[in-house]
Every structure is written in C-alpha cells, then in structure tokens.
Write a structure and sequence with these properties.
The protein has 335 residues and is an alpha+beta fold. Helices cover 50% and strands 7% of the residues. The protein is built from ten helices and six strands. It has a four-stranded antiparallel sheet.
C-alpha cells in the first residue's frame, strides 16, 4: 500500500545530498567557529577563498592553530540552519510519497456500500530564512603566503587556509584596532545607555577594557615567540608558552642576543609592563580576583588577595604603548 513511501525511505537510508545556501555579509565573508577545546574563536572567511584556497582535508583556526576538516567549522546558528533544511527536505519527500500512495489507494477503490479514503494533511512547514551574517569584523587580513582572506574581532595568528603564522605582519594592525576601540568607548557607552541602561553600559565597557588588555598580552606573547624563533642564535624553548612569563621571556632574548626587555624599557616602564602583563593572568585564570601569585610577580601592593581587579582605559592605552615600544626594539635584534 505504501510502496512509494518505502521506496523513498530506502533512498534516504543510502544518504542524499542536500544543498543549503550560505549567507555572507555585504563584503562576501561568512562566519566560522573553532570548536577546539578552550578556544571557541569566531571569525570570518571570504567565501570564494574558503571554496578555492582551503583544502578539504583541513582548515586552521586563526587563534589556536587547530586543524580540522573543512566541514567542522559551522557556527551553532549554521548547524541549526542545516538541520532545518534537512527536516524540510525530509518532510517534503515523505509528504510527496504519501500523496502518491494515497492517490493510488483511492483510485483502486470500487463503488460499494463502504468507501475508504485516505487524506494527507501536512502541518505548516517551517519558513527558513537565510542566515544573516554578523556585522563585518573589525580586522580583515590577507595571508602573505597563500592570499586567503579572513577577518576577526580578535588577534589572528594563523592563516585559515595554510596555517601560516601571520602575527608579525598583523601586529601593527592589531595594536591600532585596540587603540581605536578604547578611544570609542565613550560613544559606545552613550549608545548602550540609550538602548539599555546605565548598568548594562558600564558592564559592557568593563568587559571591553579587560578583553583588550588580555588581547594585547596574547598578541605580544605570540609576537615575541615567532620573532625569537627567527633568531639564528635562538635556543630551544623550554615550553611553548614561555613568553607568558615576562622574566623568562626577557632572559631568552638576552641569552640569544645580549639584550632583554630591560634594554628597551626604562625601570618604571618595565614595572608597568610587568604589572599589566600579570593582570592578564588574573583576568584569564582567576576570574578577575586578585591572588597571591599576582601580587608576588607584579609587586602591586595596591591590592589584597580576594579583591577584584579594576582595569581602566588608561591602563590599556599604557599597555599598548609599552608593547609597541618593546616590539619595535626586539625587531632591531632580528637580522
């Protein structure tokens, strides 16, 4: 009786190809998401470059460098969209097959005292709207090796297509964006107050300030590591994240070149640099609560253990200045 339906179900069991439209922003970029442990970076890639430059066997996260198959980078919204497309396809297939079976059944009935009739009534199918790409990311990059174009609201260290570490070529752009973000905070607060309330505006501003401080620490860490590895006299790194430690990082540069961070920053600047760098530890690992490790390493006696760290706009600007100054000095040590 349900021959058509059974035939279509057998086809579905073997697998079918369903095309889902990918939406891009006005510049042709679409959203990607790293699902690696402790990463979760959201970024954008120029759609044509994703099709032509990213190999099927793997794309790279521009933050953590993780490599995964090209079909493993969908955002949660994109996953829901693909699921809904599949559901609609399944519903259409089943409804069409049932309609054919019902027509055959009804036409086979002969006039008599009892008449049987089947009817197919499908509920309203979901309306699928194209995914609206998020607003254009603040920073756009073009890989200096393969030419792949991608974008990120945070620092981008690796090319999505070939995995090239691009932190040296994007360092100046990242610091400029951080400066611009901090300079725009007053306007952002005003818009948030108008749209929400004072508390929301203050909380959002605080998060932006803290995120940009952490962002600069991360950018410098990767910058120092990549630049150091280009030194002909560079020794083996004791651990991958050694440049998260200011003293150890400076020591590595001094052993390889005869100069450390102290040669490019005054004692007062070095003290501020170390203090602000250590605040990244508090933000990242201590949920913004001061611990003894921070006080010991930063020599910041203005806090007691258990207090919440307060980062000001001026702190981020000062940190950007110091990071930029130190990076310029380290560049002079590399042939």
């Amino acid at each position: 009786m349900f021959d058509e339906l059974l035939q279509e179900l057998r086809k579905l069991e073997k697998g079918v190809e369903i095309r889902a439209k990918v939406s891009t922003n006005e510049d042709g970029y679409f959203d990607r998401l790293c699902s690696g442990n402790n990463c979760g970076t959201e970024f954008k890639v120029y759609l044509e470059d994703w099709k032509t430059k990213v190999p099927d066997d793997g794309a790279f996260c521009l933050t953590c460098g993780r490599k995964a198959a090209a079909d493993e980078w969908n955002t949660d919204e994109q996953k829901r969209y693909v699921r809904d497309v599949a559901i609609v396809h399944l519903a259409k297939t089943i409804n069409s097959a049932l309609a054919i079976d019902v027509q055959r059944f009804n036409s086979s009935q002969k006039p008599g005292f009892i008449q049987l009739s089947l009817d197919v009534r499908s509920s309203a199918q979901p309306v699928i709207l194209p995914i609206d790409a998020a607003n254009a990311m603040r920073q756009k990059f073009t890989c200096e090796v393969c030419g792949c174009r991608y974008a990120s609201i945070g620092a981008a260290f690796f090319c999505v297509a070939c995995g090239h570490n691009s932190v040296l070529s994007t360092f100046d752009q990242t610091t400029a964006v951080v400066r611009q973000t901090i300079a725009s905070l007053s306007n952002i607060r005003s818009m948030l107050i108008a749209a929400y309330d004072e508390d929301t505006a203050q909380n959002t501003s605080r998060e932006m300030i803290e995120n940009n401080l952490g962002r600069m620490a991360g950018v410098f860490e990767h910058f120092a590591k990549v630049l150091y590895e280009r030194l002909p006299t560079a020794g083996k790194l004791p651990r991958p994240n050694v440049f998260q430690n200011v003293a150890e990082g400076s020591g590595l540069w001094r052993n390889a070149t005869g100069k450390g961070y102290e040669d490019f920053l005054s004692p007062a600047e070095m003290k501020d640099f170390n203090r602000l760098f250590q605040q990244r530890h508090v933000l990242t690992h201590s949920q913004s609560i001061i611990d003894q490790q921070y006080i010991t390493k930063s020599d910041d006696r203005s806090y007691a253990v258990g207090q919440r760290l307060v980062v000001r706009e001026a702190d981020v600007v000062r940190f950007v200045d110091l990071v930029t100054q130190l990076a310029a000095g380290l560049k002079t040590l590399v042939p």
